[in-house]
Amino acid sequence: MTKPHIAVVGAGIIGICSAYFLNKSGFKVTLIDKNEPGSMTSYGHACTFADYACIPVNSPDLFRDIPSMLLRSDGPLAVDFLYTIRNLSWVMKFLQNCTTQKVKYISNSLGNLLNNASTSYDEIFSDVDVSKYIKNEEALYLFENENEFLKASITNKIREKNGVKIKNLSKNEILELEPNLAPVFFNGQLFIGSRHTTDPLAVSKKIFESFINNGGKFIKNNVENIIPNESKVIVSYKNENFSFDKVVISAGSWSKNLTRKFGDDFPLDTERGYHVLFNNYELIKRPLGWSQSGFYLVQLTEGLRAAGTVEIAGLSKPENKKRTKMIENQARKLLPQLNEVKSTWLGFRPTMPDSLPVIGQSQKNKNIIYGFGHQHIGWTLGAVTGKVINSICNDRIPNINIKPFSPSRFN
Ligand SMILES: Cc1cc2nc3c(=O)[nH]c(=O)nc-3n(C[C@H](O)[C@H](O)[C@H](O)COP(=O)(O)OP(=O)(O)OC[C@H]3O[C@@H](n4cnc5c(N)ncnc54)[C@H](O)[C@@H]3O)c2cc1C
Fold first, then answer.
1. pLDDT given for residue 186 in this prediction
2. What is the dihedral of CA 82, 83, 88, 93, to 10 degrees?
3. Distance between Cα 386 and ligand 1 center (Å)
4. Is 327 near ligand 1, meaning CB less than 6 Å away?
5. Which domains does the chain carry?
6. Other CB atoms closer than 10 Å to residue 178's CB: what's the count?
7. Angle formed at CA 29 by CA 27 and CA 33, multiple of 5 degrees
8. Whole-model pTM?
9. How far is the CA of 57 from the centre of ligand 1 (A)?
10. How many whole angstroms from 182 Cα to the centroid of ligand 1?
11. Ligand 1, closest atom to CA 371?
């Protein structure tokens, strides 16, 4: 019997892990991307395997906090007002998901997925040796003042219910762990058991190479169209049509451009985020989050990266230099020894208004399977999403409740 042939469109971390698990379970798999595997959003992030990050950006406090966040030039959020007005329906849906009840539901649903994130990666890592690029020094979140620390105690209760272990540290305890930090923070909290990567592109490439070495195929091309029919799904690239038994759409923030082609529309937008890379190699040991400006500092092999913040401005606007300058200035306040900037980067988090990913079969055609919308934690959720997608393609019920991620929830 010939193996079913599956196309995976989009080779970010979600597509790479999906292709890896599908190939391992015996499907013939073709991964397609217009760019190099792992080179887009999955390259430039803050590098944390953030199993603790079940709290969405949606928050009941957002209504109160938005005005001050927007007025502060060093704040974590920036908004392009013209873009926002043109895309008001996503914003309205996002705000509807900011009630206490909704936030609890979102956190528990993400918590469920996150609880399986680490073990799913370990399945890959037992086969693909990336130990050189993984560090176990736990992430430490720094609070700018007592108020921020007290606010976190509310969300920490939700985290703890989801199995996250947190240890509060005083300013002095933090300075003992990270002596190069300037004492400009109030205190902090350590996420016990968390880990991070020092080279996300190398990790993606290693998993991708294992997929290729086991018979997987990669095509570097722009997918122009996806056309489902009764038993096959047609994927068009190079102005030609190719036929597959199933298609996985894991094209990150660009996924809705493809799903729209066959009439499945999603309220998917992007939370743009930035990184600034400094020419430093030994300043800090662990990822350091900074509450004031919403970014992480993390030591990578290519330099010290300050990555994060949110900008609502869509996919087409160029990099906003004010944001990277703000990140640079804030990073220098925390680490005055920082050297010159090597480079800056803009990335596109794929975000649904309820901050939950879309994982499951399309309502339009069951041979089309979705895996996109992983917002701030797609790097963490790559392997577990790949495993769930593999279960769906094998007609098995995943061992995680995926109802909250249903593609039809906004219909
Ligand atoms: C500043 C920042 C910090 C972050 N920090 C963290 C963190 O610390 N931990 C964490 O877990 N997550 C983090 N994230 C989130 C994480 O980076 C994303 O959720 C994740 O990378 C999304 O992966 P993806 O595979 O869905 O998308 P991508 O990596 O963007 O991949 C999508 C791929 O689809 C391809 N594609 C699109 N359209 C087409 C087409 N028509 N034809 C062919 N190919 C196509 C693109 O070329 C791209 O390669 C951060 C994000 C940002 C921006």
1. 98
2. -140
3. 14
4. no
5. 5-405 (3.50.50.60)
6. 20
7. 160
8. 0.98
9. 18
10. 32
11. 26
Pair of tokens at residue 3: 């193996």
**Neighbour count for residue 193 (Cβ, 10 Å):** 14
Token pair recorded at residue 333: 């306040």
Residues 6+ apart with CB under 8 A from 241: 227, 234, 235
Asked if residue 58 has its Cβ within 6 Å of ligand 1, the reply is: no
Mutate to test the pocket of ligand 1, among 250, 320, 349, 385 (most ligand atoms within 8 A of CB): 349
Q: Which two tokens stand for residue 138?
A: 């736990």
SS3 280: coil
**Residue-level pLDDT, tens digit, the chain, 411 residues:** 678 999 999 999 999 999 999 999 999 999 999 999 999 999 999 999 999 999 999 999 888 877 777 777 788 999 898 999 999 999 999 999 999 999 999 999 999 999 999 999 999 999 999 999 999 999 999 999 999 999 999 899 999 999 999 999 999 999 999 999 999 999 999 999 999 999 999 999 999 999 999 999 999 999 999 999 989 999 999 999 999 999 999 999 999 999 999 999 999 999 999 999 999 999 999 999 999 999 999 999 999 999 999 999 999 999 999 999 999 999 999 999 999 999 999 999 999 999 999 999 999 999 999 999 999 999 999 999 999 999 999 999 999 999 999 999 998
| Interatomic CA distance for residues 238 and 222, integer angstroms | 8
The residue contributing the CA closest to ligand 1 atom 21 is 42
Where would I find the H helices in 345-405?
A: 378-393
Rounded Cα distance, 32 and 171, in Å: 48
Of the CA atoms within 13 Å of residue 226, those in its CB half-sphere come to 33
CA 248 to CA 144: how far, in whole Å?
42
Q: Match 């391992």 to its residue by tokens.
A: 24
Instruction: Determine the residue of 45, 52, 256, 359 to mutate for testing ligand 1's pocket, defined as the one with the most ligand atoms within 8 A of the Cβ atom.
Output: 45
Of the chain, the end-to-end C-alpha distance in Å amounts to 38
Three-state secondary-structure class, residue 87:
coil
Two tokens, residue 325: 């300058």
**What's the DSSP call for residue 411?**
-
User: Residue 64: how many CA atoms within 13 Å on its side-chain side?
Assistant: 4
